[in-house]
User: What shape does this take?
Amino acid sequence: MANKKLLSQINVTPLVDVILVLLIIFMVTAPMMQTGIDVKLPEVETSSIKTTDEPVIVTITKKGNIYINKTSVELGSLKKKLQAIFKRRPDNALLLKADASVPYGQVAKAMAEIRKAGIQKVGMVTEPLPTNN
Assistant: This one.
């Protein structure tokens, strides 16, 4: 019994296994955490808008679906939902993202509903023009 020695080293193999599993989980879930709805924005030359709060974004997809942030809404209920959202917000500003292939009439209808909701500051989200270097 006198030949047995006590080992005072930490076994790091389980720790490395746990860290690798966590790393894989974060690598898989990180691309899914992108915000917003994917649309192809028109390219124009413009300046950026500075906001202090997280903006409310109304998105119109290529298929004509309308979203408030990530929540799908019908055009008929857009006004009511925006009024409910902006009842609790001090700023009266909204960003509108529409796919470049969406007909102008559909964007105009959405803008009319946004204006009927009492929102006066509407920013159009666009892509900057490509620079020719």
